[in-house]
């Protein structure tokens, strides 16, 4: 097994086959949806509003498998929002407050 094979993210082939974007690009899409929900204000956004807005903007990316044009899939947003995206935001806030 090459080092390239070991670095593959499990399930990435399946996501690629379904036309899903990379993790970084998806996080950018989620941030865009959050920006639309929040408008020009700095405020808390409801999780459900973010899910629906991301789906409206990018239905093939955040739609329920087999029903992408009809229903959003919140699981596509849950992991980034409560995982890597949250860690990145927390890290950015710490950097700003200490600098």
Give a brief description:
This protein is mainly α and 99 residues long. It has helices spanning 3-6, 12-17, 23-38, 47-57, 59-62, 75-82, 84-98.
Characteristics:
99 residues, mainly alpha, 7 helices, disordered N terminus
Tell me what you see in this structure.
- It is globular and about 35 Å long.
- The chain has helices at 3-6, 12-17, 23-38, 47-57, 59-62, 75-82, 84-98.
- It has one domain (3-98).
- It has 99 residues and is mostly helical.
Biggest beta-sheet profile: none
The residue-averaged pLDDT reads 75
Q: Helix fraction?
A: 55-70%
Uncertain regions: pLDDT < 50 for 5+ in a row?
A: 1-17, 95-99
Number of domains: 1
H/E topology pattern: HHHHHHH
Strand content: under 5%
Cα end-to-end separation? 44 Å
Write the layout of secondary structure elements.
Layout (H helix, E strand, L loop, with lengths): L2 H4 L5 H6 L5 H16 L8 H11 L1 H4 L12 H8 L1 H15 L1
Helix pairs in contact: 3-4, 6-7
